[in-house]
Amino acid sequence: MSDILKVENVTLQFGGVKAITDISFNVKEGEICAVIGPNGAGKSSMLNVINGVYLPQVGTVTYNGVTRRTINPRDAAIAGMARTFQNIALFQGMTVLENIMTGRNLFMKSTWLEQGLNIGRAREEERSNRLAVEKVIKFLQIESIRKTPVAKLPYGLQKRVELGRALVAEPKILLLDEPMAGMNLEEKADMSCFILEINKEQGITTVMIEHDMGVVMDISDHVVVLDYGKKIGDGSPTEVMANQDVIDAYLGVSH
Amino acid sequence: MIYRETGHFVTNYLKDREIFPMTFDKVVALIGLLWLFLWVPTTSEYFLSAHVIPILAVGLATVGLNILTGLTGQLSLGTAGFMCVGAFGTYNLMLRVPDYLMSLPVALLMSGIFAGLVGVVFGLPAIRIKGFYLLVSTLAAQYFVWWFFNSYAWFLNYESSGVVAIAPKFYDYWGLGNFLGVDMQGYPARYLLALVVCIGLSYFAKNLLRSNTGRNFMSVRDRDIAASVMGISVPRAKLLAFFISCFYCGVAGGIYSFLYIGNVDLMIYEVDRSFTILFMLIIGGLGSISGSWLGAIFVYEFPIVFTWVGDFIFQGAFNTAVVENVSNMVYGVFIIALLIREPGGFAALWATTKQKLRMWPYPH
Amino acid sequence: MDWVYLIEVLVGGLLSGVMYSLVAIGFVLIYKSSGIFNFAQGTMLLFASLTFVKMTENGIGFWTALFIAAGIMVIFGVATERFVIRPLANQNLLALFMATVGLATFQEGFSQFIWDSDVHGLQMNKFLDIGLLDPNPIFMSDHIPWLDILIPQFDIFASLVAGLMIVVLAFFFQKTKTGLSLRAVSDDHMAAMAVGIPLQTVWAVVWAVTGIIALVSGLLWAERVSVSFTLIEAVMKALPVILIGGLTSIPGAIVGGLVIGVGEKLGEIYLADVFGGQGIELWFAYFMALMFLVVRPQGMFGEKLIERV
């Protein structure tokens, strides 16, 4: 299978601090790629570079055959990237349904005048996009909290809603930043199922940052290991497990 | 119990987003709406002119500010400035465009668009400036607009007093009054025009709020980075919010000058009024259209009721200064108390009351 | 163009800029320690100076009145923390801003309700025998022969007081224990709380100190523009100052004040004709701030925010 995403020699600095140093890796179409590493390894920054939230100083990201150094987050969304955030970036003042509906905004073609008058295309779009949203709501089993303001939901459910918001955009590639952080075993199992199903049934390429090694080894096809902003491992889960640098980074080295 | 929500099932997604989902609500709303039109003969000109029409004007401005501040999260202290553009725009359109081309409703609409464009100009910095820093742009709008109309006497048709009365011929409506045999300058006719505009624009705002545009606005308010990651154009959303909001304020300014006080007077559009409308918004509840109207009614009526109480119970014990000071204190207390107890304002209080009534008499 | 005239304009601008800085410092203090944009700063000025002036009008001596007014401001500050800020501690910044708008409205009504809405003059030289309070300007040519400009003596006095206040504040922040906790709180609320700094006490102190700053700046402003509603309007002018300065920096507030003061005077002289009308000082400060912020959205000394997601 071809590479849908190629990260080449990316370096990202904040002032004098290097968050990412010269990182390259490829993501194949249709795979689940896990990016792992200790805290502060630059994993989230990596995702932020891929969809344009941060602008790297050096390096390029090739997505869908187009090579660019920087991309506008909106253009990334239009090109089919959707993502979730480490610290949940749901719209706190809106309900679950409204939040997930925002994921469909690129499908809405009616003008604000039509929407204000509630006529023609605007009505039809509300209906057809709601249909698509309801499918995702059903898939994620959150029917009962449809009309609940997200601020009132527990953490695990918020993570699920955020996944839903990314999913309704019908992305080509899904970037998930710690989708299972702070979850209990049961919730993790649910979330793993969702991610696997999204990947296998809908064929959506997934790049995922995750700390839980058990989950990573179980569901990912490909693992990239970062440490202190550098790449120290890249390969299948079994290869990475055997990599001495990775073992050192996780277990420490005796001096 | 006549009013029950049990047994009401939504059978398709369009029905799920209706403003009044239940038949009972629909009937009540319809009757209420009809009554707003039909009660005119039963009321006095005084009541219309002193209470109803001004509330319609400031309430509409509150709805406008709500779109910008409540929905999109862009703080504005320039409301009165944008109203001023609307008032002066309406006046100059009526004055300078030949009568056979221009009529008051058209002039209101056009000056609303004009105020919207002015709003977009002062909204441009919002693309770069965030949060409290944006106050400077809206205050610049407020003061610049005021200064501008004060400095260029042409806009007031060189009226040296700074106040220009509105000529009766401006209420001609292309001869509609003569045709119907109705005094179009009278308060009942003014009221009906203001009412139609306000109902129409409230309906428009309500629709917008539950549509994609409204959701985009709220996403910019709640988390602008996440919004852009979803593919929402944050600058476009902000500028559109400025345009629509200032359109509302402009039309409200036109209504205030033409349908309420009957003259164009710069003093009405000073920064104090921007604050008054902000009070209405906060007390009514950010993000709620009906809340904006409740807030407008409360803030506008409080001093009047308070004076009335003073006159009847304490034999006119309160002079205007006392009324003004007490009103300010009450607004302040209400704002703070509501923010602490119920940040959603009157609109949320209404919703909680409804919820409690639903449970009554078994609250658990 | 006469360059001596230019110097006079610059000096005048700098001196009136000091007045803006004075108010701006109060804003910055509260913003820095709690992230609250305190819109009630103007009404605090009004309340403080009105309280003071009503006392002196009723025969209380200058220093006694000053002391009592300061005490009342402290009580007011502590009460504000207790009844407004503390219950809202976990709300977002917009809600807190709106609460201070409410506080401002309340204070505006309250101070004029318990005192009155009249315009009071304040002649400090009735009480204080300081030469600098003399309304007559100094002719600089008496001292430096080639410098033929006028400097209002009162403005020099105001600058001295402002300078003194900044020194006292700097001492308070750098050398006292309370100051240290204040700086810790302004750096990071949560961390400060974790090491046992009583957040609420610190905030109460900040509001009390702000109340005293409001009294001092209120009296200086009142000497210039009288004690009345106009004080609140004068304070609206301090908004562009703190926004240029960057909301979190006291040096920023001072530099911002000077920039606005000078810019306004220069604008009035060189640009008024371009705009075909007088009175552009009504909006010119806001435009300057706007231009500045478009180039540098976080203000001159403000912290650049790296938005983490």
Overall geometric form of chain A: globular
Reported for the largest beta sheet of chain A, the result is: 6 strands, mixed
CATH level-3 fold name of the largest domain in chain A: Rossmann fold
The major beta sheet of chain C can be summarized as: 2 strands, antiparallel
Low-confidence stretches of chain A: none
Strand content of chain C: under 5%
Extended strand count of chain C: 2
What is the number of beta strands of chain A?
10
* Mean model confidence by pLDDT of chain A: 92
The number of distinct helices of chain C, counting runs of at least 4 residues, comes to 12
Beta strand % of chain A: 15-25%
- Give the neighbour order of strands across the main sheet of chain C: 1-2
- Going by CATH, the homologous superfamily of the largest domain in chain A would be P-loop containing nucleotide triphosphate hydrolases
Helix content of chain C: 55-70%
**Annotation field: number of helices of chain A:** 10
Summarize the structure.
With 364 residues, chain B is mostly helical. Chain B has 15 helices and two strands.
